[in-house]
Amino acid sequence: MANDMHYVPGRLRIKIPTLKSNPQEKLSIEAVFNGLEGLETIIFNEITGSVVFTFDQGVLNGHKILGILMENGYLQDRAPGSGKAKQNSIASKAGHAFSRSLLGFAVEKALEPMGLGFIGALI
Question: How far apart are CA 23 and CA 29, in angstroms?
């Protein structure tokens, strides 16, 4: 399952699917971050499965928070595997999207001179 996140300086919101309706997961996350210097608040929404971290940017950053979540198994990669496998998967998806748009453009250009007469012939 992919994790959705939103970041602005000093604030990180991330969805953690295992948090939904799971009070034990909330306690577990709180314990992991307990006493982390620079962390101001952690706000949980167990209905949506999201957590919002607010922090002092001079002491802590979003990368550190994400790293802690990953190290403790709360985040899942969007693509199977990690590193090179994930990059290859992303590149493959981009290639497929480009191919589809190029094919659509070619078909559109091929049909353009035929105009409504071609559509009428199909009907």
Answer: 10
β partners of residue 43:
52
Are 35 and 93 in a shared domain? no
Greatest CA separation found in the chain?
A: 73
The answer as to whether 76 is a domain residue is no
Nearest alpha carbon to residue 66 among 58, 82, 77: 77
Entry pTM: 0.60
Average pLDDT over residues 58-77: 88
- DSSP letter assigned to residue 80: S
* Radius of gyration of the chain from its Cα atoms, rounded to whole angstroms: 23
Mean pLDDT of 12-38: 92
Domain containing 113 equals: 84-122
